[in-house]
Design brief:
Elements lengths: L1 E4 H17 L3 H13 L3 H20 L9 E9 L2 E4 L3 H15 L24 E7 L4 E8 L1 H4 L3 E5 L4 H16 L7 E9 L1 H12 L10 H15 L14 E11 L4 E8 L6 E4 L1
Parallel strand pairs: 1-3, 2-4, 7-8
Antiparallel strand pairs: 2-5, 5-10, 6-9, 7-9
């Protein structure tokens, strides 16, 4: 049994909050630069060059890539041979979010209650925490800040098996078309297929947080990712909605088992700053 103190978790989460909001992953940076070179639309190319410059300034100054530093979405894989000591795991994650968003001068966007008072919690807590118990004695944490401009354009469809592959493709493309410029394209599109209502959405969220160069290990779904990317980029929304070929950098698809009578499909969208960072303790 390996012990991890909650202070270590708090500090790791705090560092991830700052890193994810200020530094684009290097592989994503390369895709951004490549897209700027290859975009045929002059306006779209100019927008992409501005996004590259913005990301470079953010990295140099350790300032946020975007003013909407989002809700802190945390994926945690807790090894079953890990013993967390000194306090509660969820409290440590929230303490880390509060510390990171305060120390990093990141905008606090969380309201404690969604409908009536909508009072800001002032430290961006609570985190949106998804925890899995896995084999081993390590704790892996991935933090993916999620702003409202892109999050608000996500959608869920409870399709039926008769809708099939064409129904899935149609729903994904129409969701991106309807999103228009609101998610600050070019975007990363996460698609979750299967499960039930909440599981499909969780798959889509996880897909959004994948590395830009990753592919689904199932060749059928990897091929679907490529086809969906081509279809989405034919829409013509382009960088920042000003037209062009680059509406999305990537479409990631995740799937899971589902009911014999169901075909749930969820779409979650990331903006041009598909932010995430991770650590293993």
């Amino acid at each position: 049994m390996r012990e991890i103190h909650v202070d270590q978790i708090r500090d790791a989460v705090a560092e991830l909050c700052i890193k994810a909001n200020c530094l684009l992953p290097e592989d994503f940076f390369k895709v951004l630069r490549s897209s700027a070179e290859n975009e045929p639309s002059p306006v779209g190319r100019d927008v992409l060059c501005q996004l590259v410059e913005n990301a470079e300034i953010a990295a140099a100054d350790m300032s946020p890539i975007c003013q909407d530093t989002g809700l802190a979405v945390v994926f945690a894989e807790v090894g079953q041979d890990v013993h967390i000591v000194g306090g509660a795991f969820e409290e440590a994650v929230d303490a880390g979010v509060a510390k990171g968003y305060t120390d990093g001068y990141l905008r606090k966007s969380s309201v404690a209650e969604p409908l009536f008072e909508r009072k800001n919690t002032r430290d961006n807590t609570p985190a949106v925490l998804h925890t899995r118990l896995v084999p081993g004695d390590r704790l892996r944490i991935k933090l993916a800040p999620k702003g409202a401009g892109s999050e608000n354009k996500g959608a869920l469809a409870m399709l039926v098996p008769a809708d099939g592959l064409e129904g899935v493709k149609r729903f994904v493309v129409e969701t991106v078309r309807h999103a228009g410029s609101s998610p600050c394209p070019p975007m990363v599109v996460g698609v979750g297929i299967g499960g039930n209502m909440e599981k499909a959405c969780l798959c889509a969220k996880w897909a959004c947080a994948r590395d830009i160069n990753s592919r689904n290990p199932d060749p059928r779904y990897a091929a679907l990712e490529e086809e969906l990317l081509e279809l989405v980029n034919k829409i013509g929304t382009g960088p920042q909605g000003l037209g062009g070929r680059t509406t999305a950098f990537k479409v990631n698809v995740e799937f899971c088992a589902t009911h014999i009578a169901s075909l749930p499909v969820a779409v979650n969208i990331n903006c041009n700053a598909a932010r995430h960072a991770e650590v293993e303790l």
